[in-house]
Amino acid sequence: MLSEDYIYMETGNKVIDEAVQGSATTIESKGNGNRKVYIESYGCQMNFSDSEIVASILVKDGFDTTKDLQEADLVLVNTCSIREKAEQTVRNRLQSFQHVKKAKPEMIVGVLGCMAERLKSKFLEEEKLVDIVVGPDAYRDLPNLVKQVDEGKKAVNVILSKEETYADISPVRLLSNGVSAFISITRGCDNMCTFCVVPFTRGRERSRNPETILNEAKELFEKGFREVTLLGQNVDSYLWYGKEGLKKDYKNLSDEEKEKSMNFGQLMEQVALISPKLRVRFSTSHPKDITDEFLAIMAKYDNICKYIHLPFQSGNTRVLEKMNRGYTREWYMGRVDKIKEVMPDCAISADIIAGFCSETAEEHKDTLSMMEYVKYDFSYMFKYSERPNTAAAKKFEDDVPEDEKSRRLSEIVALQRDHSLEANQGYVGKTFEVLIEKLSKRNDQELAGRTSQNTVVVFPKENYKVGDYVTVKVHSCTGGTLLGKAI
Ligand code: SAH
Ligand code: SF4
Ligand code: F3S
Question: Cα of 359 to ligand 3 centre, how many Å?
């Protein structure tokens, strides 16, 4: 299926609806004061997770959160820079705030996240209506920045940190269904893929104290949550070595640090052991770093969901090298073979880029043949979009014509559609344990949840309720959804 998850949200509308209206179970958080903050998020899950940290910081400072833009005193937009289109969506949205601000000139508008980090104070010049610009590592400074604006100044803090992981902050679950929640385990990225803006907007990679991760997961479970997703740009390189700080390789740790160390597999195991009734997911895995040790742990626990998001970007080794991805086509295929060997029922999804600098039509075919080889359950598919200051922008020419990029992308999308349908047809007739997440959007007599493999299943409500586990037999499917009945 082409996932309905709002992971990379430059298409905007859906998430704007979601953010403005919230879902029925959205938790509105009451602080001590009367000022109200409204937060809208774009981009990856990490941004959504960060917005919950921001909400927590502001609630502590006396703000209430609101789902209603009209009644907000402080409007924050958490932004994404991953592709040009993502930034354009945010600019349009900021423009649309103009009339609200006209009616209510005292309303403060702040820009958070990756675009704030990328553009820094330029934002204040370009977007006249913005009062605050805050980068991803400076959210603790927000109360202070709001104060500066109250005093009639504009406020900017885009300092990136070597230590900040917001480890001690208990997020306010803004858009939660009360069943699943995100937990950030790393921040930043050290990989420097040549096309990618993230290392510049999010800074260097840091791992969060595992104790705080485990406490957060336990607390969520006690509150009734039944699924946590551990988040990072490259979760496989998680490595705690006793203190907060920049990423290190295991081989470079001192004996004392090795003693205190915990890697991703070990962390995952600890989270899985909290309760067999707590599902654990993770995103994103990096093909160069996903280890056999980790896959063995994944296979060992039923509550670690059998689903891996394993972006490959391109199926051609020359292009992968130019992208600085750190693996070859053969390496990637070997990782997929291993996954299927230890977990034959594991679903895999991918991110794919069409038309990267100098990609030939032949090389594009290698991407299609990779898709044939793996048969992804679903994929996030993009045209290459040059980002300012990345290595690709500096060193390579963005030379695949736009219409050719579109042609290649549409081939990728068409093939994925076939594969998603094929995958779903393969699930028909089987039974799955489904964690119920919400009422179906189309019919309030039906419930929707996901299988361990991350496929959405819709089935008649009967007496089941959100948060229950239920065994569902699948009787039919569409390209995106399985239809079944509880047994
Ligand atoms: N850390 C993750 C991906 C984060 S960005 C990883 O390495 O897999 C999410 C996806 O956006 C990437 O996987 C890539 O497919 C896409 N992307 C990133 N930069 C892009 C660009 N400049 N143009 C088009 N797509 C891009
Ligand atoms: Fe970007 Fe590569 Fe880091 Fe992913 S691993 S965030 S694509 S630099
Ligand atoms: Fe976008 Fe920043 Fe995430 S660029 S994809 S919001 S890390």
Answer: 24
